[in-house]
Amino acid sequence: MRTPTLSLRTHLVEQTTESWMFWFGLLETFVKETGNCRVLDSYRTNDGYQLGKWIGKQRAKKDSMDAAYRQRLEALPGWLGRPSDTATPQSV
Q1: Is the model's pLDDT at 1 over the cut of 80?
Q2: Closest CA relative to residue 69, chosen from 23, 37, 34, 31
Q3: Total domain count for the chain?
Q4: Which residues contact 33 (CB under 8 A, 6 or more apart)?
Q5: Quick check: helix, strand or coil at residue 8?
Q6: Do residues 37 and 30 touch, judged by C-beta distance below 8 A?
Q7: What Cα–Cα distance (Å) separates residue 7 from each residue in 17, 19, 39, 40?
Q8: Residue 90 falls inside a structural domain
Q9: DSSP per residue over 39-90, as a string?
Q10: Residue 91 lies in a domain
Q11: Nearest residue to 39 (alpha-carbon basis) of 72, 75, 82, 86
């Protein structure tokens, strides 16, 4: 039987991973449509999700985020670690 602490921790990790993958999926869709990851901070998807803000948060914590997440982001065309690196942000 799991202890409540371990069970809660496992549940939180699963939720965090699912949430991150959801947002990453939105970013992948943006990349498919535009060919890059240069997203305006104010950009919202057609469904109203604030993708630009999520990307800003990922850039802000790039040095402390899970290495697997960082590698997935860095594998996308046009992903740059700092917002100042995005010379020409785009919106769809």
Answers
A1: no
A2: 23
A3: 1
A4: 92
A5: helix
A6: yes
A7: 15, 18, 37, 38
A8: no
A9: B-TT---TT---HHHHHHHHHHTTTTS-HHHHHHHHTSTT--SSGGG-SS-B
A10: no
A11: 86
